[in-house]
Design goal:
This protein is of the alpha/beta class. It has helices at residues 17-24, 53-56, 90-95, 108-124, 126-134, 161-172, 199-203, 225-230, 248-256, 298-315; strands at 3-8, 44-49, 60-63, 77-80, 99-101, 153-157, 176-180, 192-194, 208-211, 236-239, 262-265, 285-287. Belongs to the D-isomer specific 2-hydroxyacid dehydrogenase family.
Length: 324
Amino acid sequence: MPFTLGVHESVDLIFPPTVLRDALEPNADSGDVESSDADSIDGSEVRVVGSGAELEACDALVTFAYEDAFLTSGLSWIHSIQAGVDRFPFDELESRGIRLTNSTGIHGDAVGETVLGYMIQFARRLHRYRDRGREREWAHPEWDEPFTLSGESLCVVGLGTLGRGIAARADACGMDVVGVRRTPTPVDHVREVYTPNEIESAVEDARFVAVATPLTEETRGLIGADVLAAMPESGYLLNVSRGGVVDETALLEELENDRLAGAALDVFETEPLPEESPLWELDDVIVTPHAAAATRDYYRRIADVVRENRRRAVAGEPFVNQVV
């Protein structure tokens, strides 16, 4: 049966829509997908679309943004190119019979390497050298500032794909890794797993706390004043999840009062981060523009997931990564 898949123009924030469209065309190179069955859908079509009539011509949509028009365009399936789907109205989608899938499970290596990079920058003071280099300033750090990651402690809050990717890389550097997850079952590369109600104990000895949990009603504000106060003054907070998981006001207060050593933040309560935010000016804060998962192969990974679900949609099979 014919099946029209739209690639929404909003994905341009991450990669050109045409690149993903071409990767999803029938008989395109399927990359990591071993079978060609996912590409053999007779009459299928992939097109780049905006809004209005272009949407109404599609059976399904791959998108970065959410628009209310998606609810009334006759779509049967929406795929988010991000793992986070907190911007989508689950109840409305379900009531209209629109299935929602996401891109969880594909960013463990990219995000893991980003977090490793944050920790190396802080440990080896690379961020300070870069800042001073712009001023042509040749200056050594204080003798007791630089350190190595081996033997340092890391608490990973959230042990899904992202958290496990972080933990594996930290463990390879000789770090002592603990984690926080709802079910305290053992996880590779993690010495001890705590439950969320034990989070203050989990972070109390951690030089680094990496936040990698999805934003839900349960995790909103999870890293608040009490948790930040439980961290040691030598601690660094690293957030690659969602801005709403961390109480940004409380974090800023801790940083400005030198109650924490620093922070690396990829996500914020308001994005883009407003120009007037004090976070831009703090020496030991690294700001990245919600780009922890960025990689030149991002679109290929999205295409693999969407291609399989396109096949399943036509075959009437359950989706992978279905949220609603």
